[in-house]
Amino acid sequence: MARGGCRWPHRLCKGKMLAVGVLAGLSVLSLLTYGYLSWDSLGLGPGETEATRTGPGEEPGAGGPSSQPHIIFILADDQGFRDVGYHGSEIRTPTLDKLAAEGVKLENYYVQPMCTPSRSQFITGKYQIHTGLQHSIIRPTQPNCLPLDNVTLPQKLKEVGYSTHMVGKWHLGFYRRECMPTQRGFDTFFGSLLGSGDYYTHFKCDSPGICGYDLYENDNAAWDHDNGIYSTQMYTQKVQQILASHNPRKPLFLYIAYQAVHSPLQAPGKYFEHYRSINNINRRRYAAMLACLDEAINNVTLALKKYGYYENSIIIYSSDNGGQPMAGGSNWPLRGSKGTYWEGGIRAVGFVHSPLLKNKGSVCKELVHITDWFPTLITLAEGQIDEDIQLDGYDIWETISEGRRSPRVDILHNIDPIYTKAKNGSWAAGYGIWNTAIQSAIRVNHWKLLTGNPGYSDWVPPQAFSNAGPNRWHNERVSWSAGKTVWLFNITADPYERVDLSARYPDVVKQLLRRLSQFNKTAVPVRYPPKDPRSNPKLNGGVWGPWFKEDEKKKKSDKSKGANKQKKNKNKKKANQKKGQSLHCRSRLAGG
């Protein structure tokens, strides 16, 4: 397993899969009628699953399961580092606690500080600087999406026989049809295209007068499926339907990207029951939302067992970024929040739960990043990654399952060349190696370096949520000396980023600045176009959706240009071949 660099081609083995079996389970109608499942409603005894039962004339285990595991990736939205029971939260999360305790907790696990960047890195295995999405998020009105020349995780899994389904929040762009989830590798899609919206009505206003509906089934607005159901519950019911109708002997990739616990802060009334003592209204609503999410994941787990997937499944749980304290989230004792490169913005809740794990009930403190899921899951699926795909992720399954050392030694948290520049940043402050006005952050072994403007830097302890309204009285703040644009921390010794060591270890600062500079040489241009007025849902039947249509003349022109370019390349290739033959002859003559 390679160590050291962050961009290397993975060479994996391609396997075969068995594809025989029978459909299991309840009808879609019964799920729609009754919603969630419980052990009693399933009629199963302890340890019994639908797959273990046999009907008249059936042989137990007929057909044999596929050697390829079912992959269930659950992505929560804006869940804070502290906001899980096993991190000391006052919010009860019995399902997450149990799944994590029986699996492997990832306690040195990193994501990106915002929605789009984390999702793009998960689905491509590449850093933002290598997809052009290194600035902010994809806005609803922007003609932008995950670049179409990037191969996605579901596309690679489909190559080796997986059925691929996505339920929940996309947020990787939709301005043209080719950007939609069903065009990027998913057999089916049910969810929202934008970054947020009302949990019940599924409407979203990007600005005054620019409002529209945002619930899709595949490539069309899902008006017929909109029954005013809270999105966390609605998405869970959809997951149950998928599991009920799929053959568990065929490999399944299920990407569940819940909207919760992102604002707006909304939850069904019954989930407030245990949290009425929380005075801070945002924290109370957030707690109710997280309680509902925890119950939803319990119901997903029950359905996996009910329909015979569980024993051959890998369940991965992750938040997409840190919590937002002003919207009820807590990252204590970490510093900072969502949208920042402090640990509170990028260090995430994460765990793996699977009967296939070798070291169950353990804690992984090795370095893991969200880009690592791409090569890891393709390896587990017996797929292969072409040598010309330059990845930033590593296969970390042995690290998680067997407790081995991580092949990862560094993480480029990001380089954002168009973020607001730090006023006092300069090349001089960066020893002539790096312009410290630029927002960037990098981790190498124990060291973490930040430059530019890293964002909101308070520590927000639990007491900050003790009052009815937003209160920063309890927050711990640091007043840096004027002009500071470089910070260095030993994250292993100081995970809360309280002791800046940049003045004490200038040689380490220089080493990390050089690493930043090396990464920057591989960056592609930033994709962050201005908004397009054609995106207005009023022009699209009141629905957020693809609006960009290439002009026919432009298409013909591009086609003609492409043909001419191909012809020129062909002629150039012939010329190079002749040149190569000439040089070869000369070298032979020169060599005697």
UniProtKB/TrEMBL annotation:
<keyword id="KW-0479">Metal-binding</keyword>
<dbReference type="GO" id="GO:0046872">
    <property type="term" value="F:metal ion binding"/>
</dbReference>
<keyword id="KW-1133">Transmembrane helix</keyword>
<dbReference type="InterPro" id="IPR047115">
    <property type="entry name" value="ARSB"/>
</dbReference>
<dbReference type="GO" id="GO:0008484">
    <property type="term" value="F:sulfuric ester hydrolase activity"/>
</dbReference>
<keyword id="KW-0472">Membrane</keyword>
<comment type="similarity">
    <text>Belongs to the sulfatase family.</text>
</comment>
<feature type="transmembrane region" description="Helical">
    <location>
        <begin position="17"/>
        <end position="37"/>
    </location>
</feature>
<dbReference type="InterPro" id="IPR024607">
    <property type="entry name" value="Sulfatase_CS"/>
</dbReference>
<dbReference type="Pfam" id="PF00884">
    <property type="entry name" value="Sulfatase"/>
</dbReference>
<dbReference type="InterPro" id="IPR000917">
    <property type="entry name" value="Sulfatase_N"/>
</dbReference>
<dbReference type="InterPro" id="IPR017850">
    <property type="entry name" value="Alkaline_phosphatase_core_sf"/>
</dbReference>
<keyword id="KW-0106">Calcium</keyword>
<keyword id="KW-0325">Glycoprotein</keyword>
<keyword id="KW-0378">Hydrolase</keyword>
<feature type="compositionally biased region" description="Basic and acidic residues">
    <location>
        <begin position="548"/>
        <end position="561"/>
    </location>
</feature>
<keyword id="KW-0812">Transmembrane</keyword>
<feature type="region of interest" description="Disordered">
    <location>
        <begin position="47"/>
        <end position="66"/>
    </location>
</feature>
<feature type="domain" description="Sulfatase N-terminal">
    <location>
        <begin position="69"/>
        <end position="381"/>
    </location>
</feature>
<feature type="region of interest" description="Disordered">
    <location>
        <begin position="525"/>
        <end position="592"/>
    </location>
</feature>
<feature type="compositionally biased region" description="Basic residues">
    <location>
        <begin position="562"/>
        <end position="577"/>
    </location>
</feature>
<protein>
    <submittedName>
        <fullName>Arylsulfatase J</fullName>
    </submittedName>
</protein>
